[in-house]
Amino acid sequence: MKLVNKLNHIAIIPDGNRRWSQKRGLNSWIGHYYGGKTLKKVLKRVLELKIPYFTFWACSKDNLEKRSKNEVKFLLKLFEKEFKKLIKTKEIHKNKVKIRILGFWQELFPEKLKKVFKDVIEATKDYNNYNLNFLMAYDGKEEIQRVVEILAKISQEQPNFKITPEVIKSHLITNELPPVDLVIRTGGEPHLSAGFMMWEVADSQLYFIKKLWPDFTGDDLEKAVLEYNRRERKFGA
């Protein structure tokens, strides 16, 4: 029986790349390479399931600021290589997939990599069938803090300014994204991290799986979607 997708937006926290490497006696960052291979397979299944929005947390600010220089260097080179490939991927253009890269990457990434990202965004900006969103150098707590600072400044300049949910949403990094229906976290640790997409996941269903990210498969994604389909969403009622 063909799986019926009821989801509009899935977000994945792909935990476990480094632990996957360590179990195999490899340098910790090698797991990022294999994690990239996993992502390609999962993206293929996302398109097959016709999921309109898919958000992938590629790296956090902490990943860049607290990990070894060698690991960060490897990760940035991997991004550059893979996004150059992504812009040439037939499936992206055939399916008209809009690619967004969201986070604080413009402040933290090298110019060469930023140019690659901007090229990818430009090449897909007019597509609207599917939405592939990468969180890069992202921190949800800092995202909210910056919004509060912006709105506080506006309020000082405009005494009658009203802060509404719509106004808050419009100032988020993720302002173009709809609410997340399902958050999937791999790696066996049942929690969110760094204020992950706080506004968009307020009413999300959560799905935790013990598999480390490089071992995650398209079939695992389908199982998560099936589980979501079985659940009753009450939205606080």
Can you walk me through this structure?
- There is one protein chain.
- This protein has helices spanning 17-23, 30-48, 61-66, 69-86, 90-94, 105-108, 111-124, 140-157, 165-170, 218-230, and strands spanning 9-13, 53-57, 97-103, 130-136, 182-185, 205-208.
- The chain has 237 residues and is α/β, with parallel strands linked by helices.
- It has one domain (9-139, 178-230): Decaprenyl diphosphate synthase-like (Undecaprenyl pyrophosphate synthetase).
- Strands 3-4-2-1-5-6 form a six-stranded parallel sheet.
- The two termini are 32 Å apart.
- The relative contact order is 0.20.
Task: Provide mean pLDDT, rounded.
Answer: 94
User: Can you tell me the residue ranges where pLDDT is under 50 for at least 5 consecutive residues?
Assistant: none
Give the topology string: H per helix, E per strand.
EHHEHHHEHHEHHEEH
**Terminal-residue CA separation:** 32 Å
Count of folded domains: 1
Radius of gyration: 18 Å
Q: β content, as a range?
A: 5-15%
Q: What level of helicity do the residues show? A: 40-55%
What is the SS-derived class? alpha/beta
The 3D shape can be described as: globular
Query: What is the CATH homology-level superfamily?
Result: Decaprenyl diphosphate synthase-like
- At CATH level 3, the topology is Undecaprenyl pyrophosphate synthetase
